[in-house]
Design a protein that fits this description.
One of its GO terms (biological process) is carbohydrate metabolic process. The protein has helices spanning about 1-15, 50-60, 80-85, 100-105, 125-150, 165-175, 205-215, 235-245, 280, 285-290, 290-295, 335-345, and strands at about 30-35, 70-75, 90, 95, 110-120, 150-155, 190-195, 225, 265-270, 270, 275, 310-315. It has about 350 residues and is an alpha/beta fold. An eight-stranded parallel β-barrel has the order 1-2-5-6-7-8-9-12, surrounded by four helices. The protein is globular and about 50 Å long.
């Protein structure tokens, strides 16, 4: 009887159904938006030594390895880029602080660099640039990308009545100069877009991007960033937002189709108001830790074939606003963002991205 009982004890666990879970997919995109020292204007040339004192954590998590594999310099003014404006804060359409020296500060460490066009402050400027000459706007963006060896991020935050035809013309013009490059080898060909945290804001842009520009079968844009919500979410709220992109919104008229996991990142705050967040200072208590299983295993639900989001983006390095906490010393983020880079074995430089 004892032998029979022992045999039953061995067999029973094998008969209990265990829910299937996708194998974890390695995170590929792990980066930070960067606002410079003047609340995202980048209006003055930076001395590289001074810049390094404020931002060394990005290139060194404490052991000589970078904390991120992409930095997005934010923001370029759309109309100034269209007009190739030169003024006190701008040189030939680009903020004076976004110099080749700053780009190379990151690229020399294997960190990819992108320039973000827009942001919520420049929504009207996006509308104006698209209305005036969307195709020339796109060509100018491509020229800057080639000259600096950077990618371009579309951050067009028009929630109602977005100029989708103009945005299509901008993208078409950019791609006529710099075709989609699945290998990622041509860094200037990297063209991404920012979407809302979930599917309930920027609805028209989200629908258009998901249906026409972010398909795995015929990609036009490399990927999207699901941006941060109004404030730092809980882990469950962050996951719920990201799941909306995976599911789409079939009940909307017209519906928003599902987005492939391999076509977007989730975003978190590292600096918010007057709080020093664990996302910056301590990986163990951070959302990039507690949401990590979802981000690496999220299953496709009607689009794509591979599981797992591309990774994480963090808002935002140095001084994203004139008030509140920044990532300046002593609030540097090698313990949070850098700790996550170690925990997730983030590849540096960024590898060729999954395409399905």
């Amino acid at each position: 009887m004892r032998r029979l009982a022992a045999l039953v004890c061995l067999l029973v666990p094998l008969l209990i159904a265990v829910p299937a879970r996708a194998a974890a997919t390695p995170i590929q995109v792990y980066g930070s938006w960067h606002c410079g020292n003047d609340a995202c204007i980048w209006g003055a040339v930076r001395d590289v030594s001074e810049f390094d004192q404020k931002n060394h954590w990005l290139i060194d998590r404490g052991d000589g390895r970078p904390s991120v594999n992409v930095v997005v310099l934010s923001f370029v003014h759309p109309v100034k880029l269209l007009h190739k404006t030169t003024d006190a804060q701008t040189l030939d359409g680009v903020p004076r602080g976004m110099t080749a020296d700053i780009v190379n500060y990151f690229k020399s460490r294997g960190i990819r660099v992108m320039l973000s066009i827009g942001g919520i402050t420049y929504t009207d400027a996006w509308n104006a640039a698209l209305a005036e000459n969307a195709a020339q706007f796109g060509r100018n963006a491509a020229e800057v990308a080639q000259r600096l060896g950077v990618g371009i991020e579309i951050d067009y935050e028009e929630n109602s009545g977005a100029d989708l035809a103009g945005l299509q013309s901008f993208i078409d013009a950019y791609r006529a100069v710099l075709p989609y490059d699945a290998t990622g080898a041509n860094q200037a060909a990297r063209l991404t877009i920012d979407l809302a945290a979930g599917d309930r804001w920027l609805i028209d842009i989200g629908r258009k991007a998901t249906a026409d520009w972010l398909r795995t079968t015929a990609p036009v844009l490399d990927y999207a960033n699901a941006m941060v919500p109004a404030r730092q979410p809980s882990a469950s709220a962050a996951i719920a937002n990201w799941q909306e992109h995976l599911d789409g919104k079939a009940t909307y008229a017209p519906p928003i189709p599902p987005l492939a996991p391999a076509k977007f990142t989730g975003s978190l705050y590292i600096a918010e108001g007057n709080k020093v967040l664990p996302e910056c200072t301590g990986f163990g208590a951070s959302l990039q830790n507690t949401t990590g299983t979802f981000v690496q295993t999220a299953a496709p639900n009607g689009a794509g074939t591979s599981s797992g989001l591309l990774g994480y983006m963090f808002w935002a390095a140095e001084r994203p606003s004139t008030r509140g906490v920044t990532t300046l010393p002593p609030n540097t983020c090698e313990g949070g963002v850098g700790g996550g880079a170690t925990a997730y074995s983030i590849p540096i430089p960024m590898p060729a991205l999954r395409q399905s």
